[in-house]
Design goal:
mainly alpha
Amino acid sequence: MSLAGNKGRLLGLARGISLEWAETKNHWHDAKSEEFDRKFMRELSAQVNRSVTVMEQLEELLKKVRSDCE
């Protein structure tokens, strides 16, 4: 699968997790829920965003390499 495909898959999976977490928060709203959100969900979101940025940079680099090799 291409970088673009993997980026799309990563974003889709992260979106799915976020939707499930939003549903879970409707029923779980105590101090542990906030701790889980802070420690895991926010960090997951930040990591996904960083990963997408790196994937986009890699995609541009690969395009340049292909272009240079032609």
